[in-house]
Amino acid sequence: MLKFQGKGVYGAIAVGKVSLFKRQEAQVRRIHVSNVKEELEKLSEAKSKAIEQLSAIYEKALIEVGETNAQIFEIHMMMIEDDDYNESIINIIETQSVNAEYAVAVTADNFAEMFSSMDDSYMQARASDVRDISNRIIACMNASDGGNEMSGEKMIVCADDLAPSETVSLDKDKVLAFVTAFGSSNSHTAILARNMNIPAVICAGEEFLSSIKDGDKLIVDGHTGTIILDPDEDTEKAMLAKQSDDARKKQLLQELKGKENVTIDGTKINVFANIGGVDGIGAVLANDAGGIGLFRSEFLYLESEDYPTEDQQFNAYKRVIESMAGKKVIIRTLDIGADKQIGYFGLEKEDNPALGFRAIRICLTRPEIFKTQLRALYRASAFGTLGIMFPMITSVSEVEKILSICDEVKAELTREGIPFSKNVEIGVMVETPAAAVISDLLAPMVDFFSVGTNDLTQYTLACDRQNSKLEPFCDTHHEAILRLIKMSADNAHKHGAWIGICGELAADTSLTETFLRMGIDELSVSAPYVLPLRDTIRKIDLSR
Ligand code: PEP
Ligand code: MG
């Protein structure tokens, strides 16, 4: 038995046999030609054939994964007709008197390199698209469609990477799971896997690929990203049990999708989801969350080697906001420091980092970083319904400073003629005892509170959340924490603000009734908890 660790992009468990993806890679050689016109005609015919194939794939994808996801193949068709792409191919054929296959392959390399070197991760992921369309054109010139035949049995498809068209071209009924050695969770392939409802793990590594052969037994855990080769009996049994647990949950998901979060006596509450990046959207939608209650924006900074630019941030926020199609998206400004350290910020080492220079303290000290993020957020607000919230608040003066910087940013955007929404809600996190205790003073300044119970617990009980030894002392249901939440809820409502909870406690269904009785307006949880929480809410009767 051998274990490999990748990144789960769609959570479910598959047990089955390996089918190594066989790519009919065209061996492209540089050939000097005397008849350039003939090469140009060959290119034109191959392009038409490629567009015909893509159009058929688009129709198939429309049925299997829906219009939004099928759009990538429309984009592929457009890319084949792109002027720059075609000029480059034709130029190489004409100036070097070479075969069309070679000109396409060189153009693919150049364009893929260009996309890969871009700062924007979405554009970087397009490198695989340009390779994909180029391979298709070359395959069409060689009278091969690059197809991949699969036997009757459902198999776990393993590959170095899969292009979107390769993913969709596979017979969905014969695929148990996808495992790729490389890949990015931002790629369309990962998005398609989620939408095709097929467990998928990416970044399993080169060693994984060299250790497997066709027919090997594999367990793929799309939740954890773990892959087990040749599992022993006990492991297989345990994973099968986890699989039936999954099936039960899936059933729950189907039954509760589209239903309201309403108690027996008719009290309604919003159930939103937490995400750490753009790639969390799939799970939010799949689990039917009513909005996003916490987007931990610091992950954009953590994944980056340098400060993400205003445009990079704008693109990420816009994608999240647009994907939610008008549903509320609450983005929390940068919350680093403590357990989330970033080298390029050059923060000094501290003896007590959890009580140190973190979150809003960094933003207010380095306003250039803060303003870049706020500009990106306000610009993105034009594309849907946005709320911005601020972490680690302890005082009224911090909120005053924040509001004044927000006003500066809005005035700047107005001067520059850049559109933004006038209805962006402003909220503060209640995650320090100080914020809860002065919630009567903070509430009139904001539209909402969001209780961060993870930090509120650590600061109220003086228990470092990173220290596992403190587990026995860290009672998350402690009366002190519940009283601070209740006090914040009462003060919020007194001043016309709403209040949500976005810490882990929001998913603790043993407290759901308590929170409802406090009048909490929103609970924001990890996407897989949305439906179990909805189930709990629907069984509560507050009239009793
Ligand atoms: C919290 O503290 O409860 C919270 C939601 O923020 P984080 O876990 O990111 O610190
Ligand atoms: Mg926190």
Which terms summarize this structure?
alpha/beta, TIM Barrel, globular, 3 domains, binds magnesium ion, 15% strand, Glucose Oxidase, domain 1, 544 residues, eight-stranded mixed beta sheet, binds phosphoenolpyruvate
By CATH, the superfamily of the largest domain comes out as: Phosphoenolpyruvate-binding domains
Strand order of the largest sheet: 1-8-7-3-4-5-6-2
- Which radius of gyration do the C-alpha atoms yield? 26 Å
Oligomer: single chain
General description of the model:
This protein is α/β, with parallel strands linked by helices. It has three domains: 2-20 and 148-234, Glucose Oxidase, domain 1 (3-Layer(bba) Sandwich), CATH 3.50.30.10; 36-141, PtsI, HPr-binding domain (Enzyme I, Chain A, domain 2); 260-537, TIM Barrel (Alpha-Beta Barrel), CATH 3.20.20.60. Helices cover 47% and strands 15% of the residues. The protein has 21 helices and 16 strands. The protein has helices at 36-80, 83-96, 100-116, 121-125, 127-141, 164-169, 188-195, 206-211, 233-256, 281-286, 298-302, 310-323, 360-365, 367-380, 396-415, 433-437, 439-442, 453-461, 479-494, 512-518, 530-538, and strands spanning 2-5, 7-10, 13-20, 155-159, 175-180, 200-202, 217-221, 226-229, 270-275, 292-296, 328-332, 385-390, 425-430, 448-451, 498-501, 522-526. The strands form two sheets. An eight-stranded mixed sheet has the order 1-8-7-3-4-5-6-2. It has an eight-stranded parallel barrel with strand order 9-10-11-12-13-14-15-16, surrounded by four helices. Helix 20 (512-518) links the parallel strand 15 (498-501) and strand 16 (522-526). Helix 1 (36-80) runs antiparallel to helix 2 (83-96), helix 1 (36-80) crosses helix 7 and helix 12 (310-323) packs parallel to helix 14. The longest helix is centred in the N-terminal third of the chain and has 45 residues, at 36-80. The radius of gyration is 26 Å and the shape is globular. The protein starts with a strand and ends in a 6-residue tail after the last helix. The relative contact order is 0.10. The model has no long low-confidence stretch (mean pLDDT 90). Residues 294, 296, 335, 431, 452-455, 502-503 line the site of phosphoenolpyruvate (PEP). Residues 391, 431, 452, 454-455 line the site of magnesium ion.
